[in-house]
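Thread: heme C complex, take 2
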Amino acid sequence: MNAPIPRDIPLPLPAGEGLLEFLLIVSFIVHIVFVHLMLGGSIFSLVCQIKGLKMPVFENVAYFIMRTITVNKSLAVVMGVAPLLLINTLYAPQFYASSALIGDAWMSVIPLVIAAFLIAYAHKFWWNHFVNISELHIGIALMETLLFLLIPLIFMTNVNLMLFPERWPDVKGFFSAMLLPNVIQRYLHFVTASVLFGALFLVWLTGRPNFAENMKHDALGIAEVRRFFYVFAFGAVIIQVLTGLIVLVSLPSNGMSWKIVLLLLLGGAPALPATWWMWRDLQEIDNRFANFNQVVMLFAGSIIIMGVARHEYRANALADHKAAIAQKTINYQAAALQARNDAEFTKNMRAADSEPPGSADFKQYCAACHHPELPTVGPALQEIKALYAGNPEGIVSWTKAPGKKRPDSMRMPGFPQLSQQQLQNIANYMLEAR
Ligand code: HEC
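Output below.
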């Protein structure tokens, strides 16, 4: 692997790795469901607005959908905080690297999200002002949908780029990262999922009493609208399966394992019975959608398995890189420790060198009884200095054969173990010491 291996900051994780991974998977699934409802809702609001130009009833439906978008959007953003923080914690070096490599685009997410928020609210609150200026009205819906399409593309480009450290050296900004081999397929797979989940959500929503009220209990109109969404959901599943297969075969092999292939197939499998049930439902003339609940359950199961598979793939793809970073970090820590020890050692050596000769011996043999200023067992250094100023030989001869001078003092012991040189050094040191 010729990928850049950054050094990690050796800090412990705030909780067990398994727990954090579990929370990442769960919080991401919750987040992505609301993202799908938000993006799907906004696509359908736009579609219904355009359809409403000819069939006014759809104008009404568009507004009904619009009111859910701001809610789903807020939930998508709030629920997105947890997985974002968790991915930052679990994959800090990789996510940092990929975010930095597409830095401009990554930072632009903030103004883009703010713009999308404001446009979505303007669309909702000023609906009645703009409804008769259809170009502007549709223009706003289109802008909102495009923003909601662009933001996930930036996210996906980033989380995809982090999976391929060996590509980092070649990446020059957002567009080159977007053209990595599997971003577009993944993105199409994601957008069709939004259409699918958005359509299913709207089939459910338009089956509720307040929609009937909104439609003034026009049973035929309601059935027509619900069928419209159900047909979209049906078409989306088929495209979803196709794009899913393309994603599967184009996934770079470094993250692949049989377990992941199995998980992906298992996650895709519910699409078969779901398509069958949807097809059957669409054959019924009364539009009751008898199998709708089962269909929703199947897709709920599918998105959970896909969420797990997605995490597995990432963990697999980055296992080697993570290990290499851990190794590099350990090596670095060892080298840093070695360097600190070496520095400490040289410092001690220097300190030893820079001490005046005699100082160490004085501390070892004499300091116990000779304090710099106070008379203790023996006279203070001050007193000795005054007595022997300019006469270190005097100290040497005294120490070789200490006499008995002060009546109140004990007799000073002799130091036969010290050489003449040592004694001279001690004497000089005593006279010079401050
Ligand atoms: C166990 C305590 C003790 C130690 C250790 C000791 N001394 Fe003394 N030193 C004394 C005492 C007590 C006197 C005072 C003796 C007296 O006045 O009779 C003294 C006095 C001296 C004097 C003064 C002599 C004078 O003319 O008044 C010098 C100089 C001296 N010591 C040098 C040294 C040196 C050098 C060392 C270390 C190699 C040393 N001493 C270690 C106890 C000690």
